[in-house]
Specification:
268 residues; alpha/beta; 5-stranded mixed sheet; 9 helices; 24% strand; binds NADPH dihydro-nicotinamide-adenine-dinucleotide phosphate; binds the ligand O=C(O)C1=N[C@H](C(=O)O)C[C@H](O)C1
């Protein structure tokens, strides 16, 4: 069996380092390239040094050369970087796993368009546990479809730049879809002042940022006389990285198309 060659974007980032570790541990994949932005202090250094295990792959600031050396690029960076890397992957006919969050609707369109040519997994959370929670939320929303107010609460580390998290938004989408609502029109992002009584049709979002919280998400279904909370807490970034490498292997069997972790995990 040939090993899947992976290129890692944003190699020195929090997720980049995890992805280096996950791909070096996985016998089914080869770390073919690692790249980062020009000017970062790690350019030219061995990618494995970032996790204390030199591996002979130097970090480059040339995304085209890095992606050309691989079958699949895994990208957890920022939307503007991801879209540049996506263009290169499309031109070179490589598959892509996108974990980056915070895209605008227009930016997401660019991903949907590229996926007509190359295979793409695009998912706001690659952890198996979170994807199990998405399924639990479908069931909860089907049962609690009347008389329960829905609120999504998330907490992340102080360095996170987008809010609410991509995962919180997806949780809102899952519940809204089950309840026959459109998240674009029913979402409330924070409250202040004299807000009036709660509108039963809305889905509220609350965001906490602080310290080194890896990522906590709760969906609260609040009725009169009882509350149901469905919570996921991340203790490490490794489940995201393992999910992303698994997604890369899944794409090896596809010529093009847009997928998410529900496809990778067979949860559709
Ligand atoms: N789908 C999932 O399962 C998960 C998704 N995420 C998402 O992944 C993304 C990255 O998170 P995290 O690793 O914590 O972030 P970090 O800031 O730690 O790492 C981001 C990396 O991308 C680089 N980068 C930033 N901007 C650009 C750009 N314009 N072009 C190319 N490279 C760039 C950074 O370089 P520099 O240091 O020079 O800025 C850094 O190396 C976020 O959107 C986050 O929400 C995170 C965890 C799980
Ligand atoms: O930035 C992070 O850290 C995370 N981002 C993702 C998101 O926005 O949902 C996934 C996870 O929660 C960690």
């Amino acid at each position: 069996m040939t090993s899947l060659r992976i290129a890692i974007a944003g190699a020195s980032g929090r997720m980049g380092r995890m992805l280096i570790e996950a791909s070096l541990q996985d016998e089914g994949v080869t770390l073919a390239a690692a790249f980062d932005r020009p000017g970062t202090p790690f350019i030219g250094r061995d990618a494995g040094e970032l996790i204390g295990v030199p591996c002979g792959v130097a970090i480059t600031d040339d995304p085209r050369a890095a992606i050309a050396a691989a079958d699949c690029v895994i990208d957890f960076t920022r939307p503007e970087g991801t879209l540049v890397h996506l263009d290169i992957a499309r031109e070179l006919g490589k598959s892509m796993v996108i974990g980056t969050t915070g895209f605008t609707a227009g930016e997401k369109e660019a991903i949907f368009t590229a996926a007509r040519t190359i295979p793409v997994v695009f998912a706001p959370n690659m952890a198996v546990g979170v994807n199990a929670v998405f399924k639990l939320l479908e069931m909860a929303a089907r049962i609690l479809n009347e008389g329960y107010d829905v609120e999504v609460i998330e907490a992340h580390h102080r360095f996170k730049v987008d809010a609410p998290s991509g995962t919180a938004l997806r949780m809102g989408e899952v519940v809204a879809r089950e309840l026959g609502r459109n998240l674009e029109t029913c979402a409330i992002y924070g409250r202040e002042g004299v807000t009036g009584e709660r509108n039963a049709e809305t889905i509220g979002f609350s965001t906490i940022r602080g310290g080194d919280v890896v990522g906590d998400h709760t969906v609260l279904f609040a009725g009169i006389g009882e509350r149901i909370e469905i919570t996921h807490k991340s203790g490490s970034r490794m489940p995201y990285a393992l999910g992303a490498v698994r997604a890369g292997r899944f794409l090896a069997g596809h010529a093009n198309g847009l997928f998410d972790m529900q496809d990778v995990l067979g949860l559709r």
